[in-house]
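Q: I'm teaching a short session on how sequence maps to structure, and I want students to see two examples side by side rather than one. Could you give me a first protein with its sequence written out and its structure tokens following it? Keep the formatting plain so it prints cleanly on a handout.
A: Of course. Example one:
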Amino acid sequence: MKLTPKQLKFADEYVKTGNATQSAIKAGYAKKAAYQTGAENLKKPQIKSYIEKKLAEIESHKIADAKEVLQFFTRVLRGEVSETVITPDGDKVEKEPDVKTRMNAGKEIMKRYPNDSPIVKAQLRRLEAEAALKEHERKQLEEQTNSRTTIVINDEWEDDDGKND
């Protein structure tokens, strides 16, 4: 169900102010009944839903998303942003990020793209090779254990072929 123009105006005003009575008045409802009309409008599902949707949109714009954060780190890394510092004389000066700050920005970016780093790729290959080697050794040990049965008799042991070692 669509909102009437008055309901839409009420909802938009309510999103701005959070005051149902003032929103009802600005939307064109009678001043004498504004308090009651505002309260009733807030209970109507279609108006309530519209207000919740608008508030969610506003809230999502306040929070930086991953793309925005990465863009900021990239601008720092490239020296495209500056910061205001105060000199010993008390003067305010704009300065580019120093090398340490740029490196930190680069590290933050690389944390999000670890597979693009040659060092990380090499470390990953080494770990995969070590894991494959350990798995191979485990299988060989398991095969040896299964093929050779040891029997212990009176503190002496003999193989399943009857020979003492």
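Q: Perfect. Now a second example for contrast.
A: Example two:
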Amino acid sequence: MIKQLSVRELADKVEAATGPITEWQFLDVREPWEFQMAAIKHPNCPVVHIPMSVVPLRQNELDPAKPLVVICRSGNRSMMIARFLEQNGFGELYNLNGGMTAWSREIDPSVPLY
């Protein structure tokens, strides 16, 4: 089952960490130009960028045994990828509810809206 993770829950987790969160994975599935324009840039949140179109080819770069938060602009593409990964053996999956738009509005207004 894919769970929804709010941007506040993610921000609290990142801020509470004493270093990079390595027991979880953070996957941004947006296009390269989107990722360059607006991304979560926090040393405790090591985000892996794999565009949606190539996730099927690169899913082996992810650990199916670790919790995985999937990120996109609004939460739609990330949910599609989370469903795909669930069908391919990934266990604990989270969709970042509201995506980078919610992150910008609620957590970090320095991240551009687009």
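Q: What should students look for in example two?
A: Point them to this: The two ends are 30 Å apart (CA to CA). Also worth mentioning: The domain at 2-107 is CATH 3.40.250.10 (Oxidized Rhodanese; domain 1).
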